[in-house]
Amino acid sequence: MRPAAYLLRPRARRFGAMSSAADGSTPPTQPTLRTALDAVPAYVPGKPASAPEGVTAYKLSSNENPFPPLDAVRVVLDKALDVVNRYPDMASVDLIGAIAAFVGCEPANIAVGTGSVGILGQIIQATCDPGDEVVFAWRSFEAYPIVAALAGARSVMVPVDAGQRHQLGLMADAVTERTRVVIVCSPNNPTGTVVHRGELEDFLARVPRSVLVVLDEAYLEFVRDADAPDAVAVWRAHPNVMVLRTFSKAYGLAGLRVGYAVAHAPVAAALRKCAVPFGVNTLAQVAAIASLEARDELMARVDVIVAERARVAAGLAEQGWQLAPSEANFVWLPLGTQSGPFAAACEAAGLMVRRYADDGVRVTISEPEANTRFLEVCRAFGPR
């Protein structure tokens, strides 16, 4: 017998295959989805490596670290396999403690997520209601307009300048009463350029404290520009600033999806509220901790990549290419309408690169053999 509460509850209308709505209209024939999804652009991943027969293929499309995991990381991963039948530590206590010790802050200032892009989604969920605004440079990381649109927020894209750099003054001008977040990507993906201390401080002086400024440093470890800011010091000095970082690039853990935010305690707490429960898995947690412990060894690998970046940049300059200096693990070729033909030439040579419509092509610095072949394609194609 059904309980009285069930009998007293108004019954919902049930639409049969031949039924019609009360106003005579035809009822929906499929589930109703959010209209905000119509404005969400698709994320385009880097193409996997492929090559003609007899040619070694290289994937230069996703900014991945070409080095395999460290032995110390393999050891902890192997041990952690014994407990993957259990849920991970949802609070990521050990990982957050290790990150806090590395950064030099309190655990309350750290939030973790599934890569920096996962935390980016948490940021927008924590700050934006439909109709709010997110300001960022363009081109920049293509996930920015995606996470904004998913929240029903409006993306305000401020073009980079002729040198492929953020125009921080124009970004400050773009802030309105509906702006909730401004994202500064440095080094900028895909152009590779960095903002400098003085211009960042001038920018922050103009941004209201009610607006959260996110310093996205996914490629921090590759930076050698002496004028690049110390983002943690900037965070300490400004109550509306936070820092976003990842273990995917320099640390070589892209496949495990773990990143972190350094934020003032109320913001960090809000990010943790918006996290997917148990999102950072056990393997990711132990691998990230082991990577921090082996950071000197990992940074030696980064130095090798930076040296290759310098070799590629010098080779391109010798060929006559005039490109913005990159502080990341990739180079950016603003080829315009020649982006498609150049990407096709790379693919024919067994190099998968990342084309951004008719804006340009981003090419990851990878194994020396791949970088040398990339220079050969550039020489044959000719500078633009």
Task: Describe the structure concisely for a colleague.
With 384 residues, this protein is of the alpha/beta class. It is built from 13 helices and twelve strands.
What's the layout of helices and strands?
Elements: H1 4-8, E1 58-59, H2 71-80, H3 93-103, E2 110-113, H4 115-127, E3 133-138, H5 143-150, E4 154-159, H6 168-173, E5 179-185, H7 197-206, E6 212-216, H8 231-237, E7 241-246, E8 259-262, H9 265-273, H10 282-293, H11 295-319, E9 330-333, H12 339-348, E10 351-352, E11 354-356, E12 360-364, H13 368-381
Parallel strand pairs: 1-10, 3-4, 3-5, 5-6, 6-7
Antiparallel strand pairs: 2-8, 7-8, 9-12, 11-12
Helix pairs in contact: 2-10, 3-10, 4-5, 4-9, 11-13
Q: How far apart are the first and last residues' alpha carbons, in Å?
A: 79 Å
What does the largest sheet look like?
A: 7 strands, mixed
Number of helices: 13
Low-confidence stretches are: 14-18
Q: DSSP strand (E) fraction?
A: 5-15%
| Structural class determined from secondary elements | alpha/beta
Q: How many strand units? A: 12
In sequence order, what are the helices and strands, one letter per element? HEHHEHEHEHEHEHEEHHHEHEEEH
Would you give an account of this structure?
With 384 residues, the protein is α/β, with parallel strands linked by helices. 36% of the residues lie in helices and 14% in strands. It has 13 helices and twelve strands. Helix 2 packs antiparallel against helix 10 (282-293) and helix 11 runs parallel beside helix 13 (368-381). 42% of the residues are buried.
